[in-house]
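Fig. S4 source data, part A: sequence.
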Amino acid sequence: MSLFSHAPESLCILRLSAIGDCVHTVAVVQAIQRQWPQTRITWIMGKVEAMLLGDLPGIEVIPFDKKLGWRGYPQVWRQLKGRRFDALLHMQSALRASLLSLGIRATHKLGFDAQRAGDGQRWFTNHAVPSPASPHVLDGLMAFAAELGITDLDAHWQIPTSAADDAWASAHLDNARPTLVIAPAASKAYKNWTVKGYAMLADHAAACGFQVLLCGGPTPLERQMASEIMALCQHQPENLIGQTSLKQLMALIKQVQLVLAPDTGPTHMATAAGVPVVGLYAHHNPERTGPYRCRDWVVSVYQQLMEAQTGRPLAELPWRSRLKDPDAMQQITPQQVIDQFNAIAQAHGLLKDPE
């Protein structure tokens, strides 16, 4: 039975990070808005995530700055003083999120059930959301909307970008050619593919008539990867690593034809924008964390390596099982990625014969 038979007056969303998971949460929040447009929604999210999602239509966003340490908690609580919500959707199994929930007053505090809850989250909630049959993170989050009483659970996204950001993105695009964005670096280095592989794929895409852009954040690791990729490329891509805000990157992704990345935020930003994406996976099951609309297009060595590591079929392993090998991404070959690039580009009418 649904928690609400009619639209509640107010809901609080607690999902602090990461970029990809917050993008998943947008689909949940906007499903709620479609059915209950009058419900007031407050979303507490990370400060970085708010740079991308802080202007979502009809949402009050309260940023939480984890860099402030303990001082960040009362900063949020002061903004919520005197307020009580009909329900809190505690959508992150992390201790810092649970501690933050202590200062959020709500009649119903929804959290994950035993299958998905971690870090003692169940001690901070009073209503467990049943896990769906699908292991995907987005489906697990969308189950919160179902528990509330939302009936249209199809994932759709509207992430706004400004006219200035759209114009900035357009200025970097060659309208005579399709564009491939390569976002080579994940937040955790072990998720990254090889610079040689990225360079070979970039050269192949260029030979197929694509404009190729390298995109990512300003960290030393990402800048170093970009420099090494550029040094190996015969057809030089445009290097935008460290030169885009999250909003500019979103605006850029909206206008390109294809994205390629490991298990990182831009894969899910591309999904939200309706842009096909090739995801590269080794450590996590792409059926759980892969690009939601393009799981059939991932290049994954997860199953074969996981079965080799455990000696058991994947179907017998817990769905959250993670591969421990720090060098697993090196098992993905350039030819595997090129073949999948060819297949997805062909399927979307983007592929020309290599020169």
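Fig. S4 source data, part B ends here. The mean pLDDT is 96.
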